[in-house]
Write a structure and sequence with these properties.
- With 212 residues, this protein is of the alpha/beta class.
- It has seven helices and seven strands, in the order βαβββαβαββαααα.
- The strands form two sheets. A five-stranded mixed sheet has the order 1-7-6-5-4. A two-stranded antiparallel ribbon has the order 2-3.
- The chain is globular, with a radius of gyration of 16 Å.
């Protein structure tokens, strides 16, 4: 899908104004990018209505698929990990949920994980279910477009975490070669631990400079 480039003033336009969307990255981050890597906006990962394609020169806006809203796919009780794709075992879900609980307790940031195969997803229903706000990181694991790691971060998170971290994280653990060899579950677990390590680092000019 070809990308169309827009002025930077367009990049924060979204139906959920508390969220910041990705902006152009610098040429220094080029080695971490893999062909086909996409950073979806929250609106897309929830509804399929919008996609933001990340490129070296900027962010392109592209038409995507029809919106999805399937609250029937949500669990009956709250959980920070929803796996409608069946990538994770029960034990893995519990370990991730515990790690996410520890992250929130220690840092105040909320990580939420949705594993899906579009269009089999709760879609827009997740926003209210998780009470998504500007301290929330929504991590959608979906291999539909090659790179399995997709993120949207709240505005407060965006102030502390360098935007280049998310592209480097997807480049390391989300590329097709990685998850096809090691499994979707390994990509998800590795990404959660990398996010956990990043959020626990002191905020400064070099925080989250490495994907651990």
């Amino acid at each position: 899908m070809a990308s169309m480039h827009y002025p930077s003033s367009c990049f924060r336009t979204t139906s959920f104004p508390t969220f910041s969307l990705s902006v152009p990255i610098t040429s220094s981050s080029r080695p971490s990018l893999l062909p086909g890597f996409r950073l979806k906006s929250l609106k897309w990962v929830f509804s399929g209505a919008l996609a933001l394609s990340l490129s070296v020169t900027g962010v392109g806006l592209a038409e995507a698929k029809v919106g999805v809203n399937k609250p029937e796919l949500l669990p009956t009780e709250f959980t920070p990990v929803i796996d409608v794709a069946g990538f994770l075992s029960d034990g893995q879900e519990k370990r991730l949920a515990q790690e996410i609980s520890d992250i929130e307790k220690d840092t105040g940031f909320k990580l939420r994980v949705l594993a899906q195969n579009y269009p089999d997803t709760p879609g827009l229903a997740i926003k209210n279910f998780w009470q998504v706000d500007d301290r929330t990181i929504v991590f959608v694991a979906d291999p539909t477009f090659g790179n399995i790691l997709n993120f949207n971060v709240g505005a407060t998170v965006d102030l502390d975490i360098p935007r280049s971290f998310w592209s480097r994280l997807a480049g390391k653990y989300g590329n097709m070669f990685y998850w096809k060899e090691k499994g979707e579950d390994s990509s998800i677990e590795a990404a959660v631990m990398a996010i956990s390590n990043c959020l626990r680092e002191p905020v400064g000019p070099n925080n989250c400079s490495e994907v651990k």
